[in-house]
Amino acid sequence: MIFMLGLLLKLPWLLLPAAQSNRHLVARPQDGFLYDRLLRFLEPVTSVFPSFFAIAAFLLLFWQAYLLTNFINNQRLVNRANYLPGMALMLVSSFIPEFNYLSAPLIVSFLFLLAFIFIFRAHSHPDARALIFNCGLVLGGATMFFQPAVFFLVWGFLALAMLRPFRVNEWLLLVFGFLTPYYFYLIYLFLTDQWATVYTLLEPFSVGISLKKQQLWFAGALFLTILPLLAGIYSINALSSKMLIQVRKGWILFLLYFVVSVAIAFVNPGPAFTNWVLILAPCAAVHGFGYQNSEVRLYPLIAFWLTVGYIIMIEIAGYR
User: Fold this and answer.
1) CA-closest candidate to residue 265, choices 62, 41, 87, 112
2) Cα separations in angstroms, 205 against 17, 30, 150, 278
3) Model pTM score
4) pLDDT tens, 80-90?
5) Residue 260: strand pairing partners
């Protein structure tokens, strides 16, 4: 159902003519060195198959929606299994064009979700060392695609402090996992006699926000994103006293995930909203919780059809 919903909502991007296939890709100077290498590696594929970037971006979004839904259901963060988080991710990602293009932040958003899954599973695992190391490993790899992702390591330490008793070796394991991708990359540079390019590992950071004038449709998209988010936060707060402690910690970590993602979106921002794709997973999780636990029964139906109708309207009108 999530796949079909996403496919129907994103047909305008998937059906762009081959002449406009470069619109499916975002390549910026502030992107990481590994992302640049990935694009060069994929260049022969895209010359034969121009729609590759569009399909890759859609599959990354769907994979996030699937993993998010599966994780929330399997960890019993909700009182009954549902597909609402994945549905919410497909809806929210259909508002902004940049959310549907292959970009470094889109790849990083997927890696952040993987890091969340690894670290949360560590809370009840008898031997959590592998999960903690994998979390650090994924975060280290994310910084190679988009260097401001390094600030998400702060969230990793907060999650570890909330979920596990303090153990120095586990905190060091998270750091070692984070550094491991760089260790192997430095070995690669040394063995291939490219040591002179090691300076490309570090990029300057800048903080800012895109202030260009937006069209009127953007205000509606913002409203339909923020209102369910506030409803979800209200539901989490109202039901927190009835939750098991690990469930409550899970939703607190989702809210912290959202806050850190918003902060990272302001680092090396560029002129568009590409960095804001980082908020999709935590925002969709909170949306889904609000839909399921709303005190107003008609709210989920009204919110869903209003959002779908609005997306179709702006696609038909060509506001984007």
Assistant:
1) 112
2) 36, 9, 11, 17
3) 0.92
4) 999 999 999 99
5) none
